[in-house]
């Protein structure tokens, strides 16, 4: 049965979301220079130790400038789920708030944002037999065919997945076969589903709740070409900083495999495949940039399903000023509610 109860409201907090390379870290650090905040990372790749270059992890100086949480908390051999993130983030939000500071959530893992703000229904656990059946079917028919099959039973999920995204296609099919429900039905927007009026608009008390108790700033480009250029520049910088050597070091451990969640992160997957000889290393740059663009497209799709977000055009000349103004207004409103000057 679907869980339709509204999740518990986390204490007041500010959040910055956006696709990769949209300027989230710079915006967060700018806010931290003005307000007493602690940053909670909302990024499924930054949790891993030893994966610094390919994840564009904040530098040592940036990490030292303001307290950061949920970075370097897992070995790449370990998994980290959305449910674990929610538990960790809720505890951190409460602790940071209790110490008189503002929790600032920053990242691009949209499932984590959705899970924290809207809740996730319990999904079926992995079933080896079902996974083996899907893998065999993929070997016979190819992943594009399975993507088409997914589109018939779960068009919402299929629309946001690339036809070659074997990991997520397999999981979506597995969930459907085990539960009889599409994966998208578990990622429900409970806030809208349980608090809409007859016109489909969010009720007035929820608008006040969203405006006063949390603020989600979404950095979204007006011009995709601007974002694509930044993605290319960042990937080039990663390569120049020794990204391939970083992946060599991870492989040299001997206990990591290509199918681990950590090694399926964008960039790492392509580098691992190149080092496996699946295609020439000379293709790494183009393949890595292409995969990162696809990730950014999926992130923007997720963001557009969040009606409460306040959009700032990250390619606008005054984008940072807009972010700081929104943060200032939010902090002032929070202080006024708490009777502070």
Can you give me a brief rundown of this structure?
The protein is α/β, with parallel strands linked by helices.
Structural class: alpha/beta
> How would a textbook summarize the main sheet?
6 strands, parallel
Which regions contain 5 or more consecutive residues with pLDDT less than 50? Answer: 1-9, 189-211
Q: First CA to last CA: what distance?
A: 47 Å
Q: Looking at the chains present, what oligomeric state does this protein adopt?
A: single chain
What proportion of the residues is helical, as a percent range? 40-55%
Question: Number of DSSP helices?
Answer: 16
Query: Which sequence of SSEs, written as H and E, runs from N to C?
Result: EHEHEHEHHHHHHHHEHHHHEH
Throw out a few tags for this protein.
341 residues; alpha/beta; six-stranded parallel beta sheet; 16 helices; 9% strand; globular; disordered N terminus
Describe the protein.
The protein is of the alpha/beta class and 341 residues long. Helix content is 52%, strand content 9%. It has 16 helices and six strands. The chain has helices at 24-32, 60-65, 82-98, 110-118, 128-141, 143-153, 155-160, 166-179, 183-186, 190-194, 204-213, 224-240, 243-252, 268-275, 284-303, 319-337, and strands spanning 13-17, 37-41, 68-69, 102-107, 214-220, 310-313. A six-stranded parallel β-sheet has the order 3-2-4-1-5-6, sandwiched between helices. Strand 2, helix 2 and strand 3 form a beta-alpha-beta unit. Mean pLDDT is 87; it is low at 1-9 and 189-211.
